[in-house]
Amino acid sequence: MAKNLKKYRADFPILKQLVNDEPLIYFDNAATVQKPQVVIDTISHYYEHDNANVHRGVHTLAERATEQFEATRQLVADFIHSKSADEILFTKGTTESLNLVAQGFAQNRLKPGDEILISIMEHHSNLVPWQQVAQKTGAKLVYVGLTDDGRLDINDARQKMTGKTKIVSLTQISNVLGSITPIKELTRMAHHIGAIVICDGAQSVPNMPIDVRDLDVDFFAFSGHKMGAATGIGVLYGKNTYLNDMQPLEFGGEMIDFVEEQRSTFKEVPWKFEAGTPNIEGVISLGATINYLKEVGMVNIHAHEQVLVADLIPMLKAIPGVVVYGPTDIEQRSGVISFNLVNLHPHDVATALDMQGIAVRAGHHCAQPLMKRMGVSSTVRISLYLYNTLEENQKFIEALIATKEFFKNGTI
Ligand code: PMP
What we know:
Residues 25-395 form the Aminotransferase class V domain. It comes from Dellaglioa algida DSM 15638. It is an enzyme of class 2 (transferase). This protein has 412 residues and is of the alpha/beta class. The chain folds into 2 domains: 39-295, Aspartate Aminotransferase, domain 2; 298-409, Aspartate Aminotransferase, domain 1 (Alpha-Beta Complex). 39% of the residues lie in helices and 17% in strands. It contains 13 helices and 17 strands. It has helices at 37-50, 60-79, 94-109, 128-137, 154-160, 183-192, 212-215, 240-245, 280-296, 298-317, 346-355, 368-374, 390-409; strands at 18-19, 22-23, 25-26, 88-91, 115-119, 140-144, 165-171, 196-200, 219-223, 234-238, 256-259, 264-266, 322-324, 336-341, 358-359, 361-363, 379-383. The strands form 5 sheets. A 7-stranded mixed sheet has the order 4-10-9-8-7-5-6, sandwiched between helices. The chain has a 4-stranded antiparallel sheet with strand order 13-14-17-16, covered by helices on one side. α3 (94-109) runs parallel beside α4.
């Protein structure tokens, strides 16, 4: 049975405040999650005791900083079950990780007529980089469609994976619909036709156990800030053979072995991809986050979110005028729910909820082609995390009903 996560809520100091005179309900976790005290303390401790640049110094502080920095690489490797720490590159986040694969790896391999396969529900950061690569190489960007309930259409994917498909890049969880894509099955299909598979794990790593070797993906990208770490730190996992084939996009200090006047040699993977002084604080905060999430348990987090979603969706659907998007089968979704209230603009709904202390997101969620496919310009999005509760669900529903009444009558 999954663990009760109630006691962990107290670890998040930001949640103890009032917003607009109401206890804060933070339902915008797909954008970024709140930080547990242990992560905040780890960052302070680093600056109070260990701050130094990594890799270069022989003094005690530099050694301490380097030791924590490289220990985190191993923690990340273990957390996502990669073979070794040298398959883990630190980046600014998912966006940078995906750009690095697109420009440093795929761009050198693609030729006119080749195809890049993504889905229509990709976040812009797993879409715009591929448009750029397609424009530069003459490759074609092909989209897998969705089922009517907002899941990736496997049959469509099967049909679109042909001898021309060289790259398949898919999100494991949609940041709009919450749908979970069976990446392992799709990877098997893609490898069968000889394509390279890239997975956008921005929404999955924070919310479920990840095993990159079991998924067998060739690259895997995610962001620390969506898990509990600082902003500006992310990861690109890549299989060794492919990382050795990838070209760095940035050159300078830290990534070189020897520099002569006219040429240089570079360090090995992964360091040749980490030019300049890295985000040391971010990396160390990621290490503390992973230790924290391991203590809570990724299986428990996933189960907790499914309990919350299973509670919330029927209550939402019971409100006249609410349209909920995404899979009806709870097993196929994570803690993200998009909806609209007929005749109300999502921004008005979000503003009215904020007046009642509830943080949700309204807009296109960096997924404009998906919005077009759904026939809407924007949605309201609730996204849940380990510290959210059934009581918050209840208060949210009451606030949403009050919001609806407000726009009818003019008072909350
Ligand atoms: N992919 C998905 C599915 C996301 O939800 C996000 C963040 N909203 C990103 C990519 C981009 O992440 P970041 O902004 O941290 O680079």
